[in-house]
Amino acid sequence: DIGRPGMPILPDPRRIDDADYLIMESTYGDRTHEAGGDALKMLERTAAETWKQGGKLIIPAFSVGRTQEVVYRLNVLAEDGRLPPIKVFVDSPLAVCVTDVFRTHVECFDEEMVDRILNEADQDPLKFDNLHYVRRVEHSKALNSLQEPCVIVSASGMCEAGRILHHLKNNISDSRNTILFTGYQAPHTLGRRILDGNKVARIFGEEHVVRARVLKLESSSGHADQPELLKWAVQSNAGRTIRKVALVHTEMEPAEVFRKLLLAAGLPEVIIPDRSDRMDLV
């Protein structure tokens, strides 16, 4: 559902009720996402605080899906008069192109987003005053010398490549700035190291002291949380035909927590495959 941040897209359990095996993610098998309204309030508060102290709000975001969710939320705040007069830059050529694709497929929008379109003067939930989409390299470089408060949404989401690295390099050591993560940060990525509280970030071979405030917008993830995952697994096993469940796309701690929940819910065998493990599906 486009326009409802954080809503996972899960297969219909009715289509797999005669399956023998389930291979499912458990990225957030140990937690429950915040409500979308809470995320909106956090974004509002963070933008206002950054504006007040004259800093930059740097938001690493995946180009496909996550950037559009962030822009949509900022649009809601702007249209409702809850966003300070701060410039917002989407600095990712891929994200800009993907946003254009989103706009051409209104039939995929959910009811909330359609209502937003019908009630806005510009009828565009991905556009508002002070929002700028950046394509050209020289325009991206100009953001480095911008002396006024702003919001910069840039890829890659885990800070491993792309223009976000330049924005981190130029802003991570300024205590007026805020780095707001909007999605899962895999182990050993730069984003994960920063989120985990490392005091020094190595960017382009140089070490930069982390003085910027680091926050995470929990409920913006596109991955299902524990209750959603558990509900789906139980419904999938309604016919009691599931013989084995394999938990993938996860870390060990959330996988172990979720494994115990699945076993308690009646799933007969739940494994956490290691690297190179094989699972016979026939």
The total beta strand count reads 11
The low-pLDDT segments are: 1-9, 14-18
Helix content: 25-40%
- How large is the count of helical segments? 9
Shape: globular
Strand and helix order:
EHEHEHHEHEHEHEEEHEHE
Structural class by helix and strand composition = alpha/beta
Can you walk through the features of this model?
Helix content is 34%, strand content 17%. The protein has a 6-stranded parallel β-sheet, sandwiched between helices. It is globular and about 60 Å long. The longest helix is centred in the N-terminal third of the chain and has 17 residues, at 36-52. Helix 9 (252-264) links the parallel strand 10 (244-248) and strand 11 (270-271). Residues 1-9 and 14-18 have low confidence and may be disordered. The chain has helices at 36-52, 66-79, 93-103, 111-119, 137-142, 164-171, 190-195, 226-236, 252-264, and strands at residues 21-25, 56-60, 87-91, 131-134, 150-154, 178-181, 200-203, 206-209, 213-216, 244-248, 270-271. It is an alpha/beta fold and 282 residues long. It is built from 9 helices and 11 strands.
